[in-house]
Amino acid sequence: MGSRIRGFVRRPLPATNALFLLVVLLSLLVLLADFSRASARLVHRSCCSPTQLSTLASLSAKQNLTVTGSTLSPFMVPRVSGTANNTLVQQHIISTFTALDWHVDQDPFEDNTPIGRIKFNNIIVTKNINAARKLVLAAHFDSKYFKDQEFIGATDSAVPCAILVDIATTLNPYLDTYLDPSLTIQMIFFDGEEAFKTWTLTDSLYGSRHLAEKWAATYVSGYRPSSSGIGNLSGSSSHSILSTIDVLVLLDLLGSRASPGGKPAQIYNTHPETAHHWQSLVEIQQSLAKSSVVSAGLVGQMTETGDNGYLMASSGWQSNHAIDDDHRPFQQRGVPIVHIIPQQFPTVWHTVDDNADAIDPEIVHDFALIFRVFVAQYLGLNVF
């Protein structure tokens, strides 16, 4: 007979009960670890001192993001889908991320367009292909087709693509030593965003429509994060690749002023369901301005309360200003979206003037730094 404790007889636990308790304990440990990682990321999101921001600002030379710089210049060519230049830009993206030791996926396909059947190729690059959750940044690398003229598309979207490359290049040493295996950064370079004639549901967003449909039908097993961002175990359940995306941040029409010599374009949040991410970006912009590591122009135009920057506070959300773009096929399938695009398009939009002369290098560098800090904070990189 076992020993008595407070009038009860202690007996060995049945094997099934012991196994159940072991499973519960292991599950609690996994949840605790995930909670700790999530908490650490939240701490990082509000921990940036001027010294820490200066460290992040020092990771790249401003020259790299000028129109002749090593990061932006490879995109400053006509890049119409299905052309030789488009293929050259693809090769540049692939070679750049291969050298950084990222996993590179290609999504080649053909589709009918108003000017005939065209070959497209989305490029997806991921730092840790085994991570269950992904922060996704995206931009389109094609440029619009014009029959009788060459169109560069500097803001649309050479600059956004260069910003993505800059983020990967500057943060890669920290990503190499990143300790959270459950979360990573992924970037999508969409092909075929532009309409060949008139923007319609079928003549536009060729690449994003194809990839979203493909990923919705491609399933992964195992871990699935909860809506709170803290992981849970899903046992043997399967989920589509889309379910692994924490949020998709799409960049478009960046790098110029609203009009030549005018004020920088201001951008409003059009997706209230991701207002917390938008607010993080607004606060980062404010912190960078207070630390004077962004351009004097951005510092000068912002108020003491942090308003009037490029990214407007969430209180300025205007639902009637939502803009169709590569995010739509993903949003329609439930992916959370942050859309970084001016509601008032730059005056050079879809004209031959969307070229090197339209680009303000200070604005480009400011946006690159804002998103560099955003990624570092979101992932909780050991930059601080």
TrEMBL record:
UniProt keyword annotations, A-Z: Acyltransferase, Hydrolase, Metal-binding, Protease, Signal, Transferase, Zinc
Organism annotation: Powellomyces hirtus
GO biological process: proteolysis
Domain Peptidase M28: 122-373
Keyword Transferase part of the UniProt annotation: yes
Classification via InterPro entries: Peptidase_M28, QC/QCL
Name of the protein: Peptide hydrolase
Domain of life of the organism encoding this protein: Eukaryota
